[in-house]
Amino acid sequence: MGVVKRIWVKRFKGGPMDGVESVRMDPDSGIDGNADCSRRRQVTVLSAESWSDAERELGRSVEPSARRANLLLEGVDLVESRGKTLQIGDVSIVIWGETRPCHQMEEAISGLQKALDPDWRAGAHGEILSPGEVAEGDTAQLIAPERE
Fold it and tell me: How far apart are CA 114 and CA 57, in angstroms?
């Protein structure tokens, strides 16, 4: 079982990532107050352990908001999580895929794009299936789909 360590929202496209203690998530509107969401990319998630791996490769500590994800989770392995459901309290998020590092990572920190490239280090993205509130300290777990 993992835990939600940090939460960020982006007020406008390309804007700063604002840290918040909790956020409302809804299948129809995405994350309240967050810009830039498509149906299958309503939430972006980052693993604290993968972020630490990227920092080791960079040789320095970097503020995780530089990744521009919405959630930082500790104890949740996102590698090959496509098709699994991330459960955080009442909120269910289906993971649709790996979030690939882009030029914005390199613009934020030199070498960050390369450091985030292997093993899903840049995180995952998904679609909200059930509404609810997510707060720092909430437990989080990945659930594999049931086999038919």
Answer: 9
CATH of the domain at 72: 2.40.33.20
DSSP-based three-state secondary structure for 138: coil
CA–CA dist 71, 105 (Å, integer): 16
Both tokens of 24, joined, read 């409302």
pTM of the predicted model, to two decimals?
Answer: 0.93
Rounded Cα gap, residues 106 and 134, in angstroms:
29
What is the per-residue pLDDT across 52-106, written as a single tens digit (0 to 9) for each?
999 999 999 999 998 989 999 999 999 999 999 999 999 999 999 999 988 888 8
Amino acid at 129: L
Domain count of the fold of the chain: 1
Name residues whose C-beta falls within 8 Å of residue 124's C-beta, 6 or more positions apart in sequence. Answer: 44, 45, 78, 81, 82, 95, 96, 97, 98, 99
Residue 23 resides in a domain: yes
Q: How far apart are CA 143 and CA 140, in angstroms?
A: 10
Distance CA 18, CA 3 (A): 19
Task: Tell me, yes or no, whether 47 lies in a domain.
Answer: yes
Task: Note down the domain range covering 31.
Answer: 2-143
